[in-house]
């Protein structure tokens, strides 16, 4: 029952960076599933392909990192280089947020259980700690 209440709490409270973590988590898994070589160049190539198919807010994320044809900036290497070293997607998203604060504004409406499964236990634990602090009236 604890995992259910944590899932409900996460669904209600996690907004910032979940879209980034979920999209890049799915992307990372697809690289592994398709035996893609983990080099920055091959990751960039695959990210461009994935972003061509991305819709809605995920397409907007692609735009912000420079993985769409109409992107104004190119920080795609901020994804490809750390991912080539298997850096967790949560850490990649943290760095992306520092590069472009608009990434923080991207969020899904309602989180599904499948989205929550893509989040690492460490990330979920961090969020749960922040939620507890906020519930106590403290700011992180």
Automatic annotation (TrEMBL):
Residues 19-109 form the ARMET N-terminal domain. One of its GO terms (biological process) is neuron projection development. Its main location: secreted. It holds the Pfam family ARMET_N. Keywords: Disulfide bond, Secreted, Signal. InterPro entries: ARMET-like (IPR045333), ARMET_N (IPR045332). This is Mesencephalic astrocyte derived neurotrophic factor. It is found in: Secreted. One of its GO terms (cellular component) is extracellular space. Belongs to the ARMET family. The lineage of its organism: Eukaryota, Metazoa, Chordata, Craniata, Vertebrata.
């Amino acid at each position: 029952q604890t995992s259910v209440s944590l899932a409900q709490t996460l669904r209600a409270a996690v907004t910032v960076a979940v879209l980034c973590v979920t999209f890049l988590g799915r992307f990372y898994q697809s690289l592994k599933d398709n035996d893609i070589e983990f080099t920055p160049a091959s990751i960039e190539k695959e990210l461009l392909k994935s972003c061509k198919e991305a819709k809605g807010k995920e397409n907007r994320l692609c735009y912000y990192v420079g993985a769409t044809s109409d992107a104004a900036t190119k920080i795609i290497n901020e994804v490809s280089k750390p991912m080539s070293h298997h850096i967790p997607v949560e850490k990649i998203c943290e760095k992306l947020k520092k590069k472009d604060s608009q990434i923080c504004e991207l969020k899904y409406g309602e989180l599904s259980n499948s989205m929550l499964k893509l989040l690492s236990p460490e990330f979920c634990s961090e969020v749960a700690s922040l939620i507890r602090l906020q519930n106590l009236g403290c700011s992180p």
